[in-house]
């Protein structure tokens, strides 16, 4: 006798983050505010598997610095919701960003960007 077990995968309902993300005007020093640097490469974070399949959404605000090499450094989680769930995915994405200083005239030295902030949203797009 052969039994075939078929699992019906039901899609869980989406659970929004426990707290709303801060509005852009509430976040101190967004990277777009400095005209002396150009953002060359943006990498979207990879949605962590478990929260995705569990239908959990969230957000992360990261604080970081950018020096002459254009790579984000000193990355810290400033705030997130749900706490710690999406932090590492956001950090991994930000580590792959790349900035280029915009040198004007004969400028030889570029000021580093200190204390920038970036908001990452983790939202699940469901098909109706």
Describe the structure.
This protein has 128 residues and is mostly beta strands. It has one domain: TonB (TolA/TonB C-terminal domain), CATH 3.30.2420. The protein is built from 2 helices and 5 strands. It has helices at residues 49-54, 87-94, and strands at residues 37-41, 58-66, 72-81, 98-101, 113-122. It has a 3-stranded antiparallel sheet with strand order 3-2-5, covered by helices on one side. A two-stranded antiparallel sheet has the order 1-4. A hairpin with a 5-residue loop joins β2 and β3. The longest helix has 8 residues, at 87-94. The radius of gyration is 19 Å and the shape is elongated. 17% of the residues are buried. Mean pLDDT is 83; it is low at 1-9.
Helix content: 10-25%
Mean pLDDT: 83
The total of helices stands at 2
Question: What is the count of distinct domains?
Answer: 1
Instruction: Summarize the main sheet.
Output: 3 strands, antiparallel
Any idea what the CATH superfamily is called? TonB
Flag low-confidence runs: 1-9
Do you know the CATH topology? TolA/TonB C-terminal domain
Going across the biggest sheet, name each strand in turn: 3-2-5
Give structural attributes.
5 strands; 128 residues; three-stranded antiparallel β-sheet; 2 helices
Topology:
Layout: E1 37-41, H1 49-54, E2 58-66, E3 72-81, H2 87-94, E4 98-101, E5 113-122
Antiparallel strand pairs: 1-4, 2-3, 2-5
């Amino acid at each position: 006798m052969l039994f075939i077990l078929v699992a019906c995968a039901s899609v869980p309902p989406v659970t929004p983050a426990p707290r709303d993300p801060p509005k852009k005007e509430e976040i101190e020093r967004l990277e777009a505010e400095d005209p002396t640097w150009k953002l060359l490469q943006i990498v979207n974070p990879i949605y962590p598997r478990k929260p995705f399949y569990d239908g959990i959404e969230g957000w992360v605000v990261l604080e970081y610095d950018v020096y002459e090499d254009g790579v984000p450094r000193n990355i810290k989680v400033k705030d997130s919701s749900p706490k710690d769930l999406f932090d590492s995915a956001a950090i991994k994405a930000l580590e792959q960003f790349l900035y280029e200083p915009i040198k004007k005239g004969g400028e030889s030295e570029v000021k580093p960007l200190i204390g920038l902030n970036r908001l990452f949203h983790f939202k699940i797009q469901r098909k109706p």
